[in-house]
Amino acid sequence: MNILYLDCISGISGDMFIGALIDAGADPAVLQQGLKRLHIEDEYELEWRKVIKNGITATKFDVKLHAHSHGHGHSHEHAHSHGHEHAHEHMHSHDHGHEHSHSHEHDHTHSHDHAHEHVHSHAHEHTHSHDHEHGHDHTHSHGHTHSHDHGYEHIHSHAHEHVHDHTHSHEHSHNHDHTHSHGHSHDHDHTHSHGHTHSHGHTHDHHHRSYADIVKLIEAAGFKDSIAETALSIFRKIGEAEGKIHGVPLERVHFHEVGAVDSIIDIVGAAILLDHLQVEAVYASRIPVGSGKIRIDHGIYPVPAPATLEILKGVPLEQSAIRAELTTPTGAAIAAVLAQQFGPLPSMTVNRIGYGAGTKSFGEHPNVLRVMLGEM
Known about the structure:
A 5-stranded mixed sheet has the order 20-15-1-22-21. Helix 1 (14-23) runs parallel beside helix 5 (257-276). It has helices at 14-23, 28-35, 211-219, 225-246, 257-276, 306-311, 329-338; strands at residues 2-7, 44-53, 56-65, 82-87, 92-94, 110-113, 125-126, 130-135, 138-139, 144-146, 153-156, 175-176, 208-210, 254-256, 281-284, 287-288, 293-296, 299-302, 317-318, 339-342, 349-357, 368-375. It is 23% helix and 27% strand. By secondary structure, the chain is of the alpha+beta class.
């Protein structure tokens, strides 16, 4: 039997899960082709790149939203932490039907941890980290990078900053991230985007997708039954938790446009890649959730965030001294829905290993999700 073991040494998020599967050998082209069935490819592009986390090479997966897919936003309640990492990155990004300019820009990215991983039903939990990455990112980027790491780090590109004189117009965009050494591994992930909105946090154009909308989107995509059932089960887990926390029926739970796209890609993408890798059973370690407090609209709450904790009811949790949110609602739902058992590594023959990187960096351990594919 083909099994997947999730070694959640630093928690789990949707992007870390996708990154780990790609790192373990999943074909990104399969992910891209599968996601096209949703017919929302004009709203995003995908990026994956190699980074170094505390000496461990891992794959960082991001969903970049196109500027037109959301409106003008502003930031809320920034709590800052500082991570250190050396990321020698080769970013693969795939745009959809745009003409691009070949420009060298310094787009100073601000990484914001959003504790609701873009899932909003009238509550927005925000923690923000300044994760500075020394990265040599070769990106094709046209929009806003939303890197949902622990606590939903939204990397918002400010597309009109520090444009160098040597801008060359071409039909394909090859944005080159220019990193600057500051003496001690503060990574400045200068993501270069051609977006025109200066957006922090959630947007206010009031374009939402409800839980019911997302169900219809997935059901209409024509996925094989196993993929659709997995994706719908994970979304339902999140929707039920959000509905309970905020006192609204499941059908009325709304996902902000920005968050909905990210969540759809992570959740449907997870289902696509599990099918692609022919995973028959999933096992997981105990789930570390982090510690400390985060600020949400209703005040300061302890980690884990209310929705995350609701999702993880019945799942063995692990205490962590890290003062940050390690597990996001999407990551929690992926583990809670997929894993049939939580605990130590089961007896298995390991054939493939993958590391999915988060955005933050911690001194105590590499901020990665390790996955093992093998046979039992």
